[in-house]
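User
New here, help please:
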Amino acid sequence: MRHEEHAHHEEHARQEEHAHHETHTHHQEHPTASWSMAVQATLHCLTGCAIGEVLGMVIGTALGWGNAPTLILAITLAFFFGYALTLRGVLRAGVGLRTAIRVALAADTLSIAVMELVDNGVITLWPGAMDANLGDPLFWGALAFSLAVAFVVTTPVNKWTIGRGKGHAVVHRYHH
């Protein structure tokens, strides 16, 4: 019985220490932003952006839309899916919808905006990419390359924002 009591007290002490660490971490002015954290945040952003971007490009191209409406749809869907992925995780933490929306907007807006600016800039400037159809390797190659370039450019942006307690640092407060 004494061993069980001792184990219980040790577990309780570990939980209190973890809670203290969590509280202390959340109140830091400038959390440590490692490249690993920035890469993880950017991969998260890239997932939502890629889903929206690819879906928008496929829909616009399949429907024979012009470049501007296709880009608008792709960008809109990229923001939608980027925010949706963050909302899902924050809502799972038990946060109310209004707070979750604010967290998603704070966490993802700059990251998605940079990613979309770079991604669509590459596609727009790539000769023939906007005119390629779904069966053309140029369509898929340009899209994949543009997302890769956007990832490389957005990662330092996320590192910078996390280091200032912004961007995905806001989301980390809700992940335990």
Remarks:
- Residues 5-28 have pLDDT under 50 and may be disordered.
- Residues 5 and 79 are 51 Å apart (CA to CA).
- The helical segments are 2-26, 35-62, 67-92, 97-125, 137-163, 168-172.
- The radius of gyration is 21 Å.
